[in-house]
Design goal:
seven-stranded mixed sheet; two-stranded antiparallel ribbon; alpha/beta; 47% helix; 292 residues
């Protein structure tokens, strides 16, 4: 760890958590007001996703979504302090029996989720409760932030793996019985994914999870880390998802990806304030795809 990062983390952690939460929540709210572009993206996404909701409710969810992300930033460094003795003060885990059953199959485990609640603390808690996992992500443009985030994730043993050219390393990891967590809720380029329905609109979605499941036979489970009213989190591990495997690769990939995406949508609908609505999820258009 570089000296610059050591100093930065020390200063960050010297500030009481309550102060950090208030500061970053306020900063996020300020960003909502000042950044017209991103505010319009959020409001447009929410209006299209929830046409039945009033403008007042849409705006309430939008502002809450910003504050939710602010809390993720404020709490991130706390991951380095988590251990088996204090993790219960932060999070409760539900569905560990589903995870344990999947691990016993000996084919590794594929977890999937989205940028929802505080997914980073969820990953850390699962590593403490069982074993470290591999988290698939995109390398950040900022070298300092990249080093900081990688360091914090590794404090609980988790490994960060760049999504670029990650298929072979992931297959090798699954053969060793390891667990991989993939967030599949963001837009991808047309050559990296397929279009499935997400909140009633075609959304270009990574096909990597479905391809891995079909190729390796590894069990696939949804996992969400939801912020509860008392400020603590619930890490909910769902039951294994049945994988369609008819031998028609294209259809199987599309159908399975639709199922995964539907599970994510269902959870977001329950807690819309905790999803990352400022992302341009529907940026890639069907007209960009070549007809087969």
């Amino acid at each position: 760890m570089s000296l610059k990062l050591q100093i930065g983390l020390w200063i960050f952690r010297m500030v009481p958590l309550a102060v950090r939460r208030a500061f970053f929540s306020g900063l996020a709210s300020l960003g909502y007001r000042l950044s017209v572009k991103h505010r319009l993206i959020v409001l447009h996404n929410l209006t299209r996703a929830f046409p039945e909701k009033s403008p007042v409710e849409i705006e309430r969810i939008a502002k809450a979504s910003y504050r939710s992300f602010g809390l993720v930033v404020a709490e991130f460094s706390e991951i380095t302090r988590l251990n088996p003795e204090n993790v219960h003060q932060w999070i409760r885990i539900q569905g560990l029996e589903h995870y344990d059953e999947a691990r016993l199959k000996g084919k590794g485990v594929l977890l999937f989720s989205g940028h929802f609640g505080n997914w980073e603390i969820g990953n850390a808690a699962l590593a403490i409760a069982r074993e470290p996992l591999i988290f698939i992500y995109r390398i950040l443009d900022s070298a300092f932030l990249e080093e900081a985030i990688t360091y914090v994730r590794a404090s609980c043993g988790n490994v960060s793996l760049d999504k670029e050219n990650a298929m072979r390393p992931m297959i090798r990891a699954l053969k060793k019985g390891e667990t991989i967590n993939i967030l599949i809720d963001q837009n991808v380029a047309v050559y990296d994914g397929i279009f499935v329905d997400f909140f009633g609109r075609p959304a270009c979605t990574t096909s990597g999870l479905a391809l891995l499941a079909l190729h390796t036979g590894a069990p696939v489970l949804p996992v969400f880390t939801t912020r509860m009213p008392d400020g603590k989190y619930l890490l909910d591990i769902g039951e294994e998802v049945a994988i369609r495997n008819t031998g028609n690769r294209d259809d199987d990939v599309r159908e399975n990806t639709q199922v995964f995406t539907g599970i994510i949508e269902d959870h977001i609908r329950k807690y819309p304030e905790q999803w990352f609505w400022m992302h341009q999820r529907w940026k890639t258009k069907k007209c960009q795809a070549r007809e087969k």
